[in-house]
């Protein structure tokens, strides 16, 4: 069985290093959610009935999911020991980095440069009749703004990935009336107790 993602050390530097942040999310998603079918296949016990030589002489077609169903005990164990802990780690990282993105950033190395550019733009005299494009000024965004946009995008990606993973689990383990977020929230509540 796969192992849940390990939680990285959460610091503002980790969040502002968008390459490290994206790599963590990509690897975590790839290990658990992108390979959900392989992870679920690993739960099946091979050769439960033993090998029957006659089984190779006839092509056996079965209804989707009928012979590939996984016991509810194995599914529940996978969800509680691998899937939900990985989702929790990613949720914690996304929540922490979203908090960093909405907090003041006194250590921003580009803040002085942005302030100088803003001052220059305000002092500039523009005659748009001579050059209609000279009045354009595109201020550089702060790294907190860039991080906030990345967090919005990653949360959307996370939502899609969770829906897809939950759908695969539903096909293989039996559909549940719960939505992925509801099941995850219920699991999270029991983990805190």
From TrEMBL:
InterPro entries: MIX23, MIX23_fungal. It comes from the Eukaryota. One of its GO terms (cellular component) is mitochondrial intermembrane space. Belongs to the MIX23 family. This is Caffeine-induced death protein-like protein Cid2.
């Amino acid at each position: 069985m796969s192992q849940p993602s390990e939680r990285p050390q959460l610091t503002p530097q980790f969040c502002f290093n968008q390459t490290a942040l994206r790599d963590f999310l990509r690897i975590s998603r790839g290990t658990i959610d992108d390979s959900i079918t392989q992870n679920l296949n690993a739960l099946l016990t091979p050769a439960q009935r033993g090998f029957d030589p006659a089984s190779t002489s006839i092509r056996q077609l079965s209804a989707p999911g009928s012979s590939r169903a996984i016991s509810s005990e194995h599914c529940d164990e996978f969800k509680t020991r691998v899937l939900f802990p990985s989702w929790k780690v990613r949720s914690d990282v996304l929540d922490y980095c979203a908090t960093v993105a909405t907090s003041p950033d006194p250590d921003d190395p580009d803040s002085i440069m942005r302030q100088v550019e803003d001052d220059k733009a305000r002092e500039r005299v523009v005659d748009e009749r001579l050059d209609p494009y000279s009045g354009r000024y595109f201020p550089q965004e702060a790294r907190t703004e860039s991080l906030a946009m990345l967090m919005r995008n990653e949360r959307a990606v996370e939502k899609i990935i969770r829906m897809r993973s939950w759908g695969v689990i539903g096909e293989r383990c039996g559909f549940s009336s719960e939505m992925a977020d509801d099941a995850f929230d219920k699991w999270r509540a029991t983990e805190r107790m």
